[in-house]
Structures are given as C-alpha cells and as structure tokens.
C-alpha cells in the first residue's frame, strides 16, 4: 500500500468514526437492542443464504465472460470473487479488482491486463442496477428528499457514462479510445503505456458481445437475477424484524444502498451504511430511525462476518499472500 493509499485509508477511517458518533447521538441504543433481541433467527439465516447466492450469481457472470478455453473452474472464480469482495470491503480503494486479476495470473497463468479488462466489463454490468432502480420509481409512492435526489442524480450519471462507454466501444472503437484517454489524462506519464494497453484490451473485450450477442444477454440476465436476490436478502431482513414493507420498495432502497458503494466509502462502510439507511428508508420511506438503525446494524454486522469469513476461507484455499502484498505496498502488476 502506497503512502497516498494509506493516508486515504486513515482519512476514511476517521470519517467513518465521525459518522458512527453522529449516528449514535440520534439513536436510542436501548430501543435498538430491544428490536434486535426480537429478531426471527430462521428468517435471518434464510436472508444470509440469499446474500451469498447473489455473490455466487455475479461470479457466474464473470466466469461466463471469460475465454472458455482458458478460464479456471467456476468454484475457483467464485473464490477469487470472495477474496476481492473482502479486500474491497476492508480497503475501499478498489484494490479487490486488481487482486482478482493478480490471482488469475498467479494461479492460472492468465495475463493480468486482459483479466483486468474483463473484470472492468463485468463490474460495468452492476451499474444496470441503476436502471432497474429508476424503472421502479413510477410504481412507488416515495417522498424524495434532497439527499436522495443528489444520490439518484449521481448514480444516473454513472449509469449513463458506463453504458455510453460500452456502446461506444462496441460500435465506434476509435471514438472511445479518445474518450478514455481524456478520462484518464491525470495519470502520470509512466502509466500511459499501461493505460493504452488497458484501453486496447477493453475494446477487444467488446468484440465478445459483437460476435457472441448471447453472452451480452446472459450477462444482463445474471445481473437482474443478482439484483433480485439482493432484494430478497434485504426484504427477509425486514421480515425477520416483523417489518411488512413491500418487496419492490425494499428492492429499490437496497439497490440504491448497494450502488452507493461505487462512491468513496470508509473502510467496511463504517457509519456510511447507517446514514444511507436513514436517508433512504427513514427520510424517504417513513421507517422510524430506530427500526432503520436496527435493521442496518444487524445486517451490517452479519454481512461483515460473512464477507470476512468467506474471504478468509477462500484465501486459505488458494494459499495466496495477496493481503500481505497489498499492505506492504508491493506492485501487483509486476
């Protein structure tokens, strides 16, 4: 980890602690604890099953986008996904995506540059959740506050840029080369060669959809299924607390929370999850702050355990020392 990344991590941690302290000032902890004590454990276990299934479905999508002749097994790809998710959760500088490409090179002898381009294409499908969230808006009686308007506007911008880049890459490769070079103009001169190589491979990856349109349809299908499974997970968390909110409303709210992870976050979403829950479900949907805080606090703790445990098990299976390499600042590209 570079000094700049370490500073970013420390500042994020400080921000997270401040967010938690502010949140604690507006929440009745006795009421929160009482709500958690009454939770239905069996429903909670089912919810966590859907949570892991959503991760698995996205791993299938990534696996299907890879070259059939060279890709590793699905279980291996899933283990890399679990490791990447854990790293992104603990160190929110998107190091998890680089780690996944490094694992493919180390374990399966696949070129890191081509793996990164497929990973980028795979992750770009997650922005399709923004379209699904916006499509639900006409069917929901929502009271949108200023914070939600800003969030929706920012996410819509991310969606438009992502879809625009993908379409340009498919139908006008020369134009997208110019656009991407302008987007990454701020990179130091020494990284320009790698930038240009990544752009070339990204455009090459788009040939996959031109020659095999069924792969595009499949990737979209897995994306929609993943979003629905996410919604089922969070809706069941609500049911575990005896909160009878419509599935579509919970799906919309949780999709927004998930998509907000594309924005800068404190380590382990410390504090930010609680505030996103209050902004969306309390201010937007009328859920009491106590209920919203209880749902998110329990969900946050349990998913933190799941992410850390599953990622740790995957690390032990692969025998990788990727975490040490990241924390000691080793160059994963070499």
Largest sheet: none
Mean pLDDT across every amino acid position: 84
* Principal-axis shape: globular
Count of separate structural domains: 1
Radius of gyration: 20 Å
Are there runs of 5+ residues with pLDDT below 50, and where?
none
Specify the structural class.
mainly alpha
Count of β-strands:
0
What does this structure look like?
This protein has one domain (3-327). Helix 3 runs antiparallel to helix 11 (213-240), helix 10 (192-211) crosses helix 11 and helix 13 (272-282) crosses helix 14 (289-318). By secondary structure, it is mostly helical. The chain contains 15 helices and no strands.
Question: What would you say about this model in short?
Answer:
The chain has helices at residues 3-25, 29-37, 41-65, 74-90, 95-108, 112-124, 128-136, 146-171, 173-183, 192-211, 213-240, 247-259, 272-282, 289-318, 322-327. It is mainly alpha-helical.
Question: What is the strand and helix layout of this fold?
Answer:
Layout: H1 3-25, H2 29-37, H3 41-65, H4 74-90, H5 95-108, H6 112-124, H7 128-136, H8 146-171, H9 173-183, H10 192-211, H11 213-240, H12 247-259, H13 272-282, H14 289-318, H15 322-327
List keywords for this structure.
single chain, 334 residues, mainly alpha, 15 helices, 76% helix, globular
